[in-house]
Amino acid sequence: MTRPIVGIIGNHCLLNDEYPAHAAGTMNSDAVSAVCGAMPLIVPSDPKYVSVGELMAVCHGFVFTGGRPNVHPSEYGEAETEAHGAFDQARDAITLRLIRACVAAGLPILAICRGFQELNVAMGGSLYPEIRDLPGRDNHRMPPDGTMEEKFAMRHIVTVSDGGPFHRVFGKREVLTNSLHGQGIKVAGERIVVDGHAPDGTPEAIYVAGAPGFVLGVQWHPEWQAGIDPVSRPLFEAFGQAVGAWRDGQQVHPVKTA
Hints:
The protein is of the alpha/beta class. The protein has a single domain, classed as Rossmann fold. It contains seven helices and 13 strands. It has a nine-stranded mixed sheet with strand order 4-1-5-6-13-12-11-8-9, with helices on both faces. It has a two-stranded antiparallel sheet with strand order 2-3. A two-stranded antiparallel sheet has the order 7-10.
């Protein structure tokens, strides 16, 4: 039997500062292939090229990746400011609709960093443009200098709820994660349950209450060394099980919540 297919949401970028491309980090493909046991398929996230219906007909699950551009604040009813940074509105036009359709259908979703924020916005939530500017909050941004190992190094603990879906996936309530984001949840969307927080109170793990399928989002980057990291591996394994179940015509997963 062929492997299930996981769509990895690509980001618009310029190769050599001039050649337009859609790309996704190879660490996402590594995690999907090696840990989920699925075939990674990079999605050109622009409605000029793909539609929600076509993507759902082809893929058995989606990883909504991180990316430097942010969700445009007009998607949650706020005005654009300099603090909001760069945008990719073509990606917004695909991902927000795709998330809502997948949640309704039960098609598995794993949302990471920007994808975590997209999941919240798609369900009607809003975002802070810059977490580090809030009183009492830490700087969650990627260190500006250093090697990849230093940039993706573990930065803080995330505490998840007792008996919740993340507790069941990780097997413990406190996990150590990296931190490479500037924005964060301001108001949780409808049915969005914040299930895990950083020590400064920043939401770090969410799910959709009552979703018929696997829908989990994390603000950190579990794709980094997913095959060996004790937190990342069980998360991608659980997602892979859900993807395989969807491919086989089932709509069940080990972290379903009421």
